[in-house]
Amino acid sequence: MQYTILGTTQARDNEGTPVPVGGPRLRALLTSLALHTPHPAPVTALIDDVWADDPPADAPAALQALVGRLRRSLGKEAITSEPGGYRLTATRADIDLYVFESLVREGTTALAANDPATAAQALREALALWRGPALADLPDHTAATRPEAQ
Fold first, then answer.
1. CATH number at residue 61
2. How far is residue 43's CA from residue 71's CA, in Å, rounded to a whole number?
3. For the CA atoms of 76, 77, 78, 84, what is the dihedral angle to 10 degrees?
4. Alpha carbon distance 98, 135 (integer Å)
5. What is the pLDDT of residues 14-58, one digit of tens each?
């Protein structure tokens, strides 16, 4: 499974077919899980990312229900329960943000090595990954404070 969070959050299966994720809260949940990859995302961080300043009365139970819905969309094995949180079973190579960072490092290294053609190619590939504002599916104030968005 491949995940894109540089713009509207999306998932694609291994053949590149889009996998419906669902509404804004499910996309915010997937975005937050992707940002924590490969580590578990703490329940408190997920609640803050999904509901920002307006969590429901029983936020942990509401989060558990959202995780269940996201598992039904992505596949049961896509999200594991961990002590104190949840983990997206993906590698950084499966998430466009981390691929972008890797390509930028590659381009920067190529520039330092006086290889502008390789640098240009890597940086073009990195820019092509962007489809809109970074972390677009997180609440505005939450996304704006993330170092990944800057």
1. 1.10.10.10
2. 16
3. 90
4. 13
5. 999 999 999 999 999 999 999 999 999 999 999 999 998 889 999
